[in-house]
Specification:
Number of strands: 13
Structural class: alpha+beta
Shape: globular
CATH topology of the largest domain: Rossmann fold
Helix content: 40-55%
Largest sheet: 9 strands, mixed
Length: 482
């Protein structure tokens, strides 16, 4: 739609030029350097662009302008909102390890004092998440789905989180902002309801043959050069990370305990029932990068956040994209993602089919969001105004069920997130300062003029991914038995 309006605006301006006059000293003068044929040519080209736009839309081949910018998060005119299913990443946490951790050993500097123990949600993370819930409270009320001070009836809402403090706390903070008068129960593994850990980022089937093929698929992230290509592609980012923490001044790094991060290769390992992992230089550098990004979110002083180094926004984005590469190696290759996310895909598919549910909220990790999108066949995307361009902290993968005036059901699938400035400044989200929204598209799936996916096509994405998992499991079970 943005391209359409740009073309339409240009047409209006061109028409105005054709008849415009310049008034100077009370005298009206036509543009002297323009001939009538010039305007005819301009309008011809503009009408051609408009024709091309609609021709491509009919083929379903026009891509969204959202590769360059994200919209603010708003409702959809002309549609009735019937259901929202959210898969969220937890909000800001402290680094995953504290005393004797890799980030501590690989810098001579002292990291900031965190407001929470290792791996747990920080005070700022709780504040940001509560405010996000408050924003959704206003939005859902304006859409007529859940009123501001509602106490939802049985089965109308569902909250579920992994049994990690940062995940459960994020779900609770969001719920308190969304439904302040309701005693929301957050399901989690180990609770009294027998909740299963269907969001665990672990392999659901395994064989040595599968692991060998997975290693090959993951290596393709580095192109024809495989893991050597990954080393070359990440060298500049690793060098920036090392410089930012003054790693070469660290006695532990000088001792050779962690090798040479600029020269050593990385690899990939898998074990039955466990989370896949990257080994070597990329993993080590990612642990430091993770702490750096979190420190940047928490610490208002930019210089202090970078240990006295003057990093640009592009530098921070480079570090964030390096973390995305690490995440992709672990969970963002379709061959692996379809294995890991299978139980979650089934759960989400079930929620989408629950016509009594108004809102579902699931909370896990960045790998959960990226793995799910990868398994569903998301088209490549890069989130604007974020240094984590795939799954920024606190991001919400949202499925909105919408009914149009002709009684047809559509879905808007999007990522809702705070910009990096909104995170760092702890901005209060409101209709005047909303979060950002990036509408996603999927391989082989057409959208309507509003970027929405038909219900049939969305359900097919889930069913195809679930079926492909069954095929993989059968294939490698037969290989293992042979």
């Amino acid at each position: 739609m943005k391209r359409f309006f740009k073309v339409l605006t240009a047409m209006v301006l061109a028409l105005s030029m054709c008849t415009a006059t310049v008034w100077a000293n009370g005298q009206g003068e036509t543009f002297p350097d323009r001939k009538e044929t010039d305007y005819v040519e301009i309008l011809g080209k503009l009408f051609g662009l408009l024709e091309e736009y609609y021709g491509e839309k009919e083929k379903g081949s026009v891509s969204s302008d959202k590769t360059e910018e994200a919209d603010v998060f708003t409702g959809m005119d002309g549609y009735t909102l019937e259901q929202v299913v959210i898969l969220s990443r937890h909000n800001i946490r402290a680094p995953l390890a504290s005393n004797g951790s890799v980030p501590q050993e690989l810098t001579p500097h002292q990291w900031i004092s965190w407001t929470a123990p290792a791996s747990e949600l920080t005070v700022k993370g709780g504040i940001l998440e509560t405010n996000m819930g408050q924003y959704f409270r206003k939005w859902l009320d304006s859409e007529g789905l859940i009123s501001e001070n509602a106490v939802p009836g049985k089965g109308e809402i569902r909250f579920n989180a992994r049994d990690k403090q940062r995940c459960r706390a994020t779900a609770r903070f969001f719920a308190s902002g969304l439904l302040p008068l309701s005693d929301v129960v957050v399901e989690h593994p180990g609770d009294a309801y027998g909740t299963k850990d269907f969001m665990a980022p672990v392999l659901n089937f395994y064989s040595d043959e599968y692991a060998e093929d997975a290693l090959e698929e993951v290596g393709k992230v580095g192109g024809d050069a495989g893991f050597e290509g990954i080393r070359k592609d990440t060298a500049d980012a690793i060098a920036l990370i090392m410089k930012t923490v003054d790693m070469k001044d660290s006695k532990i790094y000088q001792s050779g305990k962690y090798g040479d991060l600029l020269k050593d290769l990385s690899s990939y390992k898998m074990e039955e029932g466990k989370e896949p992992d990257v080994t070597g230089a990329v993993k080590t550098a990612s642990q430091v990068a993770d702490a750096l990004i979190l420190q940047y979110y928490e610490e208002p002083d930019r210089l202090k956040a970078a240990f006295g180094h003057e990093l640009t926004e592009e530098d921070w984005k480079t570090i964030g994209e390096f973390l995305t590469t690490y995440l992709t190696l672990r969970h963002g290759v379709p061959f692996v993602a379809k294995n890991i996310t299978n139980p979650l895909l089934k759960e989400l598919r079930s929620e989408l089919g629950n016509k009594d549910r108004k809102l579902s909220f699931f909370c896990a990790h960045d790998c959960t969001v990226l793995g799910t999108l990868t398994a569903l066949g998301v088209e490549p995307y890069e989130l604007p105004e974020s240094i984590e361009t795939k799954t920024p902290i606190g991001v919400k993968l949202m499925f909105e069920r919408l009914r149009d005036e002709e009684d047809q059901v559509w879905y808007r699938v999007s990522l809702v997130y705070r910009s990096v400035d909104q995170i760092r400044n702890a901005d209060v989200l409101s209709p005047d300062n909303p979060p950002l929204q990036y509408v996603l598209s999927f391989e082989g799936v057409e959208t309507n003029e509003d970027g929405l996916i038909s219900e049939e096509d969305l359900i097919s994405l889930f069913e195809n991914a679930i079926e492909e998992y069954d095929e993989l499991e059968e294939k490698y079970s037969l290989k293992a038995a042979a």
